[in-house]
Write a structure and sequence with these properties.
about 160 residues, mainly alpha, AhpD-like, globular
């Protein structure tokens, strides 16, 4: 009987909470002032820091689809991002710092200045969303991406 037990994601997809989260995720990850590639990269960088297997798997695939290379993703994961473009490097460093400390006290202001105010606010929102999602999926013990469900459909 336990083989027919719905997964936490299936339960979430069929709930009011799941619907609310999906709407919230789409509003942050959808089109806006921050480029979709930076949204994906920021989310992935936070997911690497938080060791969220579920989110890393999902956003790694999205990053490859968005044109990032395996070398780019390895650089993000291993913090060897010196070969990334300036905006990608700024995105990753800001995402890591916000995830690790929840402040930008140790981030060079030149990195922040790469973004206009609206794009920067979206970047902070994306990283905050990633941190929420990472902790949510880690707490539920969800390690593998089961495919697209309504609760996990936060594509940029």
């Amino acid at each position: 009987m336990s083989g027919n037990k719905p997964s936490p994601l299936q339960k979430l997809a069929d709930s009011e909470v799941g619907n609310t989260l999906q709407t919230f995720q789409k509003s942050i990850m959808g089109p806006g002032d921050l480029d979709g590639r930076q949204k994906i990269l920021a989310y992935l960088a936070a997911s690497f820091v938080n060791e969220s297997a579920y989110c890393v798997t999902h956003y790694r695939a999205l990053a490859l689809d968005a044109g990032y290379s395996e070398d780019d993703l390895r650089a993000v994961q291993t913090e060897q991002d010196h070969l990334l473009t300036p905006i990608d490097r700024a995105t990753v460093r800001i995402a890591r710092e916000l995830t690790s400390t929840s402040t930008l006290d140790d981030v060079d202001s030149n990195l922040i200045d790469i973004f206009d105010d609206k794009a920067f606010i979206e970047l902070v929102a994306v990283v905050s969303l990633a941190n929420f999602d990472n902790r949510f999926y880690n707490a539920l013990g969800i390690q593998q991406y089961e495919g697209q469900t309504s609760a996990a459909s936060h594509h940029p």
